[in-house]
Amino acid sequence: MKKASYAIFLLTSLVIMPLDVLAQSGSGINLATSLIIATVIIAFGAIVFVADNLLQLESRRQLSDKDIEIDASLLPKTIKGGVDLPSYIPKERFIHLNRGFDINLEGKPEKRTVETPFVTRYSVLPTDFRGIAPIPKVVPVDGDNILAGDELFFDKRNPEIKFVAPVSGEFMGIERGEKRAIHEVNILADKEIRYRELPAIDLATAERSDLISYLMKYGGWVHLRQRPFDTIPEPNETPRDIFISTFDTAPLAPDLNYTLAGENAAFQAGIDLLNKLTDGKIYLGLDGRGKDLPSDVFLNARNVEKYWFKGKHPAGNVGVQIHHIKPIKKGDVVWYLHPNDVVILGRMLTERRYNTERLVAFTGAEISPNVYMRTRPGANLSDLLSAFKFETDHVRYISGDVLSGDKKEREGFLSFWDDQLTVVLEGDYYEMFGWLLPQAVRPSLSKTFPGFLLPDLEFRADTNAHGERRAFVVTGQYEQVLPMDVYPQHLIKAIITNDFERMEGLGIYEMSEEDIAICEFVCTSKMPLQEILREGLEIVNE
């Protein structure tokens, strides 16, 4: 709009000033005639300008997923820019996403692993798993000695799916929350982890039903997730395809090339297992941004179809990759996994034990050093954080990234799916006249803040939303940052109004909280989009 106003003003000045001079010089053109001529020229220019911009918008929409950007104007078309692909990236499998937004924060993890302090307590959190009963059936009793891989609880709706212990030790009972829902299933860990030995299984001869029973009985099944709804898959459903994203573009995200280095055998074993569970394909989303060559763990993976993605966050989200490789339609069921979970499934075959050990990144400007530690999901945060120095104690602990992670207390536990712990300043302060005169540079989609002039500038994050919830107005901000062919603003409105048919038509089956989290960050109206989306998913899943 600013560009349009400037162009019209400039055109008006260039036309009226010469005509006014001619009218005053006695050339036979009076002022009225000059104004008519100027009006016609300006009207014609405005029509050309609007038509040109509409063509440009349509071209960007049509080519938003391509590796070139074409200037589809009323003037001759020209190639504005292309992508010079490295030799190892096939052009037909390369997807360039032009929409997105990177949040450049202080506290990125360096590629260094430090010794992990002894973690005394672990907890499996039933709330990490969507779709299970709020009060699952707990198997051991207080004081029982258990091995890593022993059954802890099962879902009463699907009792054949077992949730097992990540470590060995003494069972410490449960912690309940509201309505007596079980929030924690606790273990006092051994110093040396002892594992339950799993039976050997031959992938070459095993039937699909045998593999499903094996995974459900020994804890591997809960590492699978399905879209839509992000729930644990139903054992009687065969997925159309399986998707794995091998890189993460979220703020301060761990480098999966580093965290999974050396896991070639386990990763390939996991891929081979997954191939027996679907009649479709396994798609691997690889990092095509060109910063680093992907790990040979991913490059050398066999029996997968590889696609390369380049773009800003959320290019690394598996939901975005599914959308551009093979979208989810009504009635479709696909599965997806984090590479860590593929490795865990592979270890069940290669090591014959339930080994969930992984590298976890400790990120954020409020702790130092920002490094990796080797631990397991469910580890007590207080024990892990004892190895770090804090800039201040007025901080928030987030299991995951700052956009879609879970808020934790210091005595809380690492969530089941996470390989990142983020520590940021607590933003419980007010900025006087912040809406009128922004006082600090911060990451923002708006050009009000001069940070966009310094793309490599790192920001110190806090949790302040810098405003309250406001009227929900159409701004076009969501479409600027979400590289999917959906209309997120209209989808959210359909959910708010409980319009079931519009939710389906606007693509709710393709969406998850992590996909729309970047829209929540840029939202002027400060709407809790992730919460609203989950409500919509629950509605259509009923």
Describe the main β-sheet briefly.
6 strands, mixed
Distance between the termini: 43 Å
Trace the largest sheet across and list its strands: 3-15-14-13-16-12
In DSSP terms (H or I, runs of 4 or more residues), the helix count works out at 14
Instruction: Estimate the strand proportion.
Output: 15-25%
Report mean pLDDT, rounded to a whole number: 88
Number of strands: 23
Contiguous low-pLDDT stretches (5 residues minimum) are 1-11, 19-23, 65-69, 76-81
SS class: alpha/beta
Percent of residues in helices comes to 25-40%
What Rg do the Cα atoms give? Answer: 27 Å
In words, what does this structure look like?
The protein is of the alpha/beta class and 542 residues long. Among the domains are: 81 residues, no CATH class; 78 residues, no CATH class. The chain is 28% helix and 18% strand. The protein contains 14 helices and 23 strands. The protein has a six-stranded mixed β-sheet. The protein has a six-stranded mixed β-sheet with strand order 4-19-17-23-21-22, with no helix packed on it. Strand 14, helix 6 and strand 15 form a beta-alpha-beta unit. The longest helix is centred in the N-terminal third of the chain and has 32 residues. The N terminus is likely disordered.
What attributes characterize this protein structure?
542 residues; alpha/beta; 6-stranded mixed beta sheet; 28% helix; disordered N terminus
